[in-house]
Amino acid sequence: MIYLDNAATSWPKPDCVPEAMLRYLRDVGASPGRSGHRLALAAERIRLDARLALAELFGVSDPLRIVFMHNATTALNVVLHGLLPPGSHVITTGMEHNAVMRPLQALAQRGVTVTVVACHADGTLAPTVLDACIQPATRLIVATHASNVCGTVLPIREMSAIAKQRGIPLLVDAAQTAGGWPIDLRRDGIDLLAFSGHKGLLGPSGTGGLAINDAFDVKCLPPLLQGGTGSRSEHEEHPADLPDRYEPGTPNMPGIAGLAAAARYVLETGVARIRTHERMLTQRLIDGLRGIVGVRVHGTQDAGQQTAVVAFTLVGQSVSDVAQALDERFGVLCRPGLHCAPRAHRTLGTFPHGTLRFAPGLFTTLQEADTALAAVAELAETTSRG
Amino acid sequence: MADYAVILVHTTSHAVFAERVLAQAGLAVKLIPTPRHLSSDCGTAVRILAPDMAVAAEKLAASGVPVDRIESWAT
Fold this sequence. Notes:
The complex is a heterodimer of chains A (386) and B (75). By secondary structure, chain A is of the alpha/beta class.
């Protein structure tokens, strides 16, 4: 079996991840923040380990500005609903996932105006177009760091420079980049980063959250949810302290324990090393697919400009049929369709039929990539023979 | 009788953060239930040795650990 669905969730995980989860469940088990006994404190120390590792990965000085949520989608919703009152204006891009587009559609029905900046047919964006879209009511720019459909990376630093000139915060959806692409909130000028814990960060599913730039004033971002935090229990008002401000309710501690181990593994392996491996595999897949008659590759077709995601179609074949054949006949697992990103597919010209997505990961080998390419070649040949 | 100081914080997230910073600075540190006579929002406090109060305050401020206040505490 060859797993090429790492853009949905990475697999396998490093051994330290399930080991840390088992250790937490077997030896700790308690809920952090709720009691002061030794096991509750042990849980809190694990959560601090996770915050420290992620703060180091993302260029955040204060680990309390790493806030855990169910996933990147929750973090995006917190920021979008928190920063965009009726009458405000928001700018986004033509490469967004529904994790951004659906909350924005809901907000549009409540009086928020949304501008979607067009991207080129390979998913790239000329950042200068942002300037003309900014209005007096613009309260936020939200952009994916990299497309989950074709891997194209957006020019976040240039976009941030334009946003900064106009005093507008930048929210980045890093679901596809966290752990596999260098991210530094200070250097890149990112105010708020929604991250997924279970993709490039190699943690368990059900983990993710929000990384907040040290310079961002959280007073302007109210929490979406309120509830018990274990702190300031005498008050019925939700506390303003970080991280409790955005972490009501009992946390997913087995997941956070796994994420702590995963983030430390990524730090020790090195994002640059992970990127080098994934870039090599990505270019191999792009070149291999381009060499097969009847296959069309979408996106930049340059591994230097994209994450480890390769979008392609076989002329005259349904992407679902191809994915099924790859799974059942060749043991190659990938994702066909629209990838929860109809807007990005419209930009690429692949809506409504969609694409196939090969997404290798840190543990994918060159031999596996070549085997997957051979499988596609065989399926393409079947088609061309008619 | 020992002379301690107690660092009062608002959440256990802050308590373990303070513990980590002070332990890395080489100070003797222990998390304890907040003494009842010291008002605090959090049930967990950070106990240090009284002579370490000034250096602890400095280390916590440098690391951005939110602290309610630090109180002398003789047992």
